[in-house]
Amino acid sequence: MGTRRSLAFAVTLIGAWGCACDTADSSGTPSDTPGAHDTAGTGETGATGETGETGDTAEPPPPSLGLRGLLSAQDWSREAAPHGEGAGQYRIIVLQESMASILAEVRESNPDARILAYQKVGGMRADGGDNPSTGVRVHEADGSHEEWFLHDAAGGRLIYCDYPEVWAADIGDPGYQQRWLANVRERLLRDGFDGVMMDDVNTFPGHCLGSLGTPIAEYDTDEAYGDAVVAFMEAVGPALMDADLLVAPNIAMNPWEDVMRTQALAIAPHTTHVTREYWMRWDDSENFTGPNWDSTLTLYEDVEALGVGFLALTYGPGHEGVLQGQRYGRASFLLAWDGVADSAWGYQDEQIDPWTAEWAIDPGLPTESRRADGVGWRRAYTGGTVLVNADESAEQTFSLDRPHIDGDGNRVSEVTLQPGQAMVLVHAE
After folding, report:
1. Tens of pLDDT along 204-223?
2. Which of 24, 37, 204, 411 would bridge with 222, disulfide CB 3.0–4.6 Å?
3. Is the peptide bond before 317 cis (omega within 30 degrees of 0)?
4. How far is CA 254 from the centre of its chain?
5. 65-360: which CATH topology?
């Protein structure tokens, strides 16, 4: 459930992560709260697709970058999304836990995908039935575990201002941690999910709590709350991984704020993947450029350096429109991908289908690290080139060492990009 912090200087194809929420959480994200929407074989980089007969010395074909795709279909209105044009091309798919009844159908259409169930961490809901979207339900705490709730100074229970059906949980309480772990582990193993997308793993409370609203009696600072979130992941993440489950917390944080960044990187070693929504833009903003782009990109690189996959979600349409948002998000992702990690990128815009022709542009595998070119950045791939202009004001013309085909199907030998624009090209041959 994303919340995002308003800053004076601020500023994967997909189903519904923008409500990347449990099904009942359908409202938008207010601009005065911090950043994460209500959402939600281990990725060796092997060859995919038709290989034919090859000799012992033949080079394996590069993996399809379609398998770097992230699909959030965690809403029954998106039930058809895993079976559309992108079927078979997604690396990670997120469903509601309540959608376990269609898990076999989703797997049939996407045999190489890892399917995660959404589960809330930072709050408790009153969901009923055997497939709730919350790790701990309110009735499990009500009357017997008051310490699992967060409280105001008068002792009243706190709720999320933007999701009033969610009661804020004390994620630092060991009893809450163990009940959450036991519940979620049992559900995932029972229903056959590959892992969990953990929502509201926030480095600050958000939702009009803490420094952005009502003070929390249990945590006198946002930093103290973030430290408790780190402790939660230390207690829960490794235990889920020991059960051969993927662990992908959706961490609300601003990469350009040192304390949040440090806490996020302290969480990463206790996971298999770190989820970062608002990849390279807020849902209603211009594309990130300058320091915001740089800090977001280097967070991704730092996570992969720890041996952890990175799940990046770009929201749209944004100021530049759907196409430029897709190109900028995907090219920035490819600029930093280490070529090995089980990472994935996706795009969320409820006005478009969860798959477009941009996904068919497959440059292969990276052959070098990203490198500066004027005010822009470039990176060579086995079958193409990735170009990004993240400068805040200047355009950049990139000269190419051989003819390429751009995203519009044109044969080009140079490309000029405005600030906040990017392109993935393939070799003309």
Report:
1. 999 999 999 999 999 999 99
2. 204
3. yes
4. 14
5. TIM Barrel (3.20.20)
